[in-house]
Amino acid sequence: MDTQTYPLNALTQRPMAMYHSWDSQNAWLRQIHTHNYLFVNPRTAEANGFGDGDWIWIESPINKVRCMARFSEAVEPGTVWTWNAIGKAAGSWGLSPKANESQKGFLLNHVISEELPPCEAGEHMSNSDPVTGQAAWFDVRVRIYPAEAGEPEVTSPQFKPQKRVPGQDPKRGKWQAFVAGAFRKKAKIQE
């Protein structure tokens, strides 16, 4: 691994509220975990030329992701960190295609290789925990840099919105619509 080109360690973990997938549907938890940031030490951010809240790119040898940065002294200077399981594809989970989870939420999964580099143990070794099969989220090397002015202020990559699955009724009862925020239009709040 070229640690000069990719000098930072990227870490990710699930927030406690998102360990079970059904929590992604909880309207109250969605207000708390509506999107995630890449947490960066302020000195690391300054050295890479961006500010708190700026849109940045995080890039590994296999891919890159556009996201928002948030400064944190709790993150070591050689490390970047984020919550996982917040970003969702547009339209997934029955969410609006413009939901924050798809517009501002992101997954580091896009920068993590599925296989380890070839070595004496073999050419095609899974990049996962050998006991649990869990993806290896603790050994990703990355670099970060500011997004260009004029780039869309949404996460990247973006995918075509998912279609509703059979049985998902697009209309909700009034009490459900209120809880889920469907009265936003009536209150003239834009999505």
Topology:
Elements (H helix, E strand, L loop, with lengths): L7 E6 L13 H6 L5 E3 L1 H7 L6 E5 L4 E8 L7 E5 L16 H4 L36 E7 L27 H7 L11
Parallel strand pairs: 1-5, 2-4
Antiparallel strand pairs: 1-6, 2-5, 3-4, 3-6
CATH topology (level 3) name: Barwin-like endoglucanases
Helix content: 10-25%
Radius of gyration: 18 Å
> In what order do the strands lie side by side in the largest sheet?
1-5-2-4-3-6
pLDDT averaged residue by residue: 83
Distance between the termini: 42 Å
Structural class by sheet pairing and helices: alpha/beta
Q: Total domains, how many?
A: 1
Tell me which CATH architecture applies here: Beta Barrel
Question: Would you kindly provide a written description of the structure presented here, covering whatever features stand out?
Answer:
This protein is of the alpha/beta class and 191 residues long. It has a single domain, classed as Beta Barrel (Barwin-like endoglucanases), CATH 2.40.40. Helices cover 13% and strands 18% of the residues. The chain has four helices and six strands, in the order E-H-E-H-E-E-E-H-E-H. The protein has a six-stranded mixed beta barrel. A hairpin with a 4-residue loop joins strand 3 and strand 4. 25% of the residues are buried. The model has no long low-confidence stretch (mean pLDDT 83).
Brief account:
With 191 residues, the protein is an alpha/beta fold.
Which structural traits does this protein have?
alpha/beta, 18% strand, six-stranded mixed beta barrel, 191 residues, Barwin-like endoglucanases
